[in-house]
Amino acid sequence: MAKTPLNxxxxxxxxxxxxxxxxxxxxxxxxxxxxxxGLEAVEAVKExxxxxxxxxxxxxxxxxxxxxxxxxxxxxxxxxxxxxxxxTEEAVNxxxxxxxxxxxxxxxxxxxxxxxxxxxxxxxxxxxEEMKNSCAI
Length: 137
Ligand SMILES: [Mg+2]
Prior knowledge:
This protein has a five-stranded parallel sheet with strand order 2-1-3-4-5, with helices on both faces. Strand 3, helix 3 and strand 4 form a beta-alpha-beta unit. The longest helix has 26 residues, at 110-135. The model has no long low-confidence stretch (mean pLDDT 93). Helix content is 50%, strand content 18%. The protein has one domain (7-135): Response regulator (Rossmann fold, 3-Layer(aba) Sandwich), CATH 3.40.50.2300. It has five helices and five strands; from the N terminus they run E-H-E-H-E-H-E-H-E-H. By secondary structure, it is α/β, with parallel strands linked by helices. The chain binds magnesium ion. Magnesium ion binds next to loops. Magnesium ion is lined by residues 12-14, 56, 58-59.
């Protein structure tokens, strides 16, 4: 079965992380855009149609937690994966309470990213099935 390419937004203030994720996700056949902070991410989601966002937590201008809350208000369908080097309980809780799909600890490897994308696709299928079933009488 051919995979449908996803539109993925990568948000991190570190250029190296943005570059690494772009390479990995493009090699997997997905379309990528990047943003350097939460504010840019909010603007991008207002204008674009994204399936998935990889969002750093610690960023200048607007951090990832605030941006997550704003994204969830702008788009009901976008899913967000948070990324943090300080994978504290507080960061994980704030992410999940804000509606993030998961929290990814930095440093991550290629397999973590692949697995996260697979989890997103699986999660989206389940949501679609649930919506279909809720329409059925
Ligand atoms: Mg950062």
